[in-house]
Amino acid sequence: MKRKILIVEDNVSLSQRQKDWFEQAGYDTMTAMNEPAARALIRRHQFDLILSDVRLPEGDGISLLEWLKKEKRDIPFIITTEYVSVPDVVRTIKLGAKDYLPKPVHREHLLELAEEIFRPLATVRTKPKDLFKRTCPRILEVERFARLVAPSDMSVLILGANGTGKESVAQSIHENSERVGMPFVAVNCSILPRDLAPSMLFGHEKGAFTGADAAKPGFFDMAKGGTLFLDEIGTMSFEIQSMLLRVLQENVYMPIGGQKEKFADVRVVAATNENMERAIKEGKFREDLYHRLCEFEIRQPSLAECPGDILPLAEFFRERFSKELKRDTRGFSDDAIYRLRSYSWPGNVRELQNMVKRAVLLAENPLLDMKNLVPGNPSDDSGKDTMPVIVPLKNEDVEKESISNALQACNGHREQAARLLKINPATLYRKMKKYGLR
């Protein structure tokens, strides 16, 4: 079932534009121009996210958020405004708003925020998940490290930017360990509710706090015998860090409200995109916990560091989403291939996946083109958004790699590769012979 989003905005063109963004990303979206209309829709429909302007013709976004709290409707809420007010920011965050966005709101930021909100707190897998086999030398090195550390019960810390596939590394460690076949529980620490985090991690007994009508297991219970993957570990509060340190030191934990300790038969793998040295220096992360988590460190490279993986991954996602969305696509146009290979992918594999999914959904022809791959006008890209992977053939030190990248991007098609390199096919063929490329 599609996620349902309500946009509360009196600027009709902006409201329609945001509605289009969300619907192109696969969400079901409704709009309202004022607070009374929004309340009426909320009473009739079950929304998963509300995006509201502060200033409205009738009522305002903050009073709508207050009404939701009084009605005990726990719906993720994002405030937008042209007039940023510090008191308003503090007030909305205290009321539980997920974010406070100054206008203009950018499409990529908004969709990324929605994706983060909708990402489940934890996922549990008991069967191995098929992973795309990448060929980049840096990724192969990561996989070698994962296989080496997997048989031990050492705690592993995976470092890398958002969207690089750190969970895939953790999953590989689990599947190459003696714990394979047992649960793999992945927890997104960045969205754990601060007050509920202890009970969600360690469980609670009946009557432990208001609303605890029954005993409930935590993530450590769910991962018993298997692997607990703690993603975005750098966002944990100091209180939870202290509780986690005790588990790692003594292999026991106490459910909230419990009287009897439980044995933690769990292998912990953590990940973060934070600069941990800086976090420790600034007093945001416990140094003793860091050393407990980092018995073995693995750094996951960015997608820009693995140019040879870009097109194979794009093809993998195109095939997957063509089946899921029931769309007939057969590949990428020459322009799209060039764009895929030359873009810097700041959002890494996750951004590539989302962009290909969008392109498949909007495809009017079997070959996906630049129009469907790039939000807005690709000609507007500034130099800071691109990182040429296929560079002009001016320097013999880099031209072999450029030719190899171009051939790989074009699946060995020489004429297409020559167009990407802006040389004629005869020149390309001569240089291929020179470097022993086929």
Automatic annotation (TrEMBL):
Q: Where is the Sigma-54 factor interaction domain?
A: 132-361
Q: Where is the Response regulatory domain?
A: 4-118
Entries under InterPro entries matching the protein: AAA+_ATPase, AAA_lid_NorR, CheY-like_superfamily, Homeodomain-like_sf, HTH_Fis, P-loop_NTPase, Sig_transdc_resp-reg_receiver, Sigma_54_int
Annotated GO biological process? phosphorelay signal transduction system; regulation of DNA-templated transcription
Give the record's keywords alphabetically: ATP-binding, Nucleotide-binding, Phosphoprotein, Transcription, Transcription regulation
One MF term in GO for this entry?
ATP binding
> Where on the chain is 4-aspartylphosphate found, per UniProt?
53
Q: Under what name is this protein listed?
A: Sigma-54-dependent Fis family transcriptional regulator
Source organism per entry reads: Parabacteroides acidifaciens
